[in-house]
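Title: Comparing notes on inverse folding

I've been comparing how different people in this forum approach sequence design from structure. To keep things fair, I'm posting one structure and asking everyone to reply with a full sequence. Here's the target:
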């Protein structure tokens, strides 16, 4: 069992961008790799909480989260990613807990893909339901 994660969680800033984009690339999240400046704008937009978790010794980004919220009631976890070698060490839980607290919201929704992500979120206090990911359309 890997040791528990105890390194710092910081508010994302531009100095973290290259490492965040590299993590997205490793995961195959091409929308965040195509245009790093757009990714930076996404991570720093109004109403967004973006945090990074750093390696204990190297100060390298090992995970990050982007949570969007209204500051009062509702939030949405848009991105949560941890390097594979740091998974199952509490990094994602630490990022999620801090982002939820910092958001000021009382609940957050998340769109989940994959069994590992589903298992992770089921370990959090939650209410499970169905949802939709909508795409732009003509009215």
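Reply #1:
Here's my take.
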């Amino acid at each position: 069992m890997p040791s528990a994660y105890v390194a710092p969680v910081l508010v994302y800033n531009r100095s973290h961008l290259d490492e965040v984009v590299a993590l997205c690339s490793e995961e195959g999240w091409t929308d965040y790799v195509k245009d790093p400046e757009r990714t930076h704008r996404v991570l720093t937009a109004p109403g967004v909480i973006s945090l990074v978790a750093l390696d204990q010794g190297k100060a390298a980004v090992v995970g990050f989260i982007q949570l969007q919220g209204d500051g009062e009631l509702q939030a949405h976890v848009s991105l949560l990613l941890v390097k594979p070698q740091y998974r199952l060490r509490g990094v994602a839980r630490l990022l999620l807990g801090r982002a939820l607290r910092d958001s000021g919201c009382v609940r957050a929704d998340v769109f989940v893909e994959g069994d590992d992500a589903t298992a992770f979120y089921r370990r959090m206090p939650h209410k499970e339901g169905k949802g939709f990911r909508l795409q732009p359309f003509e009215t």
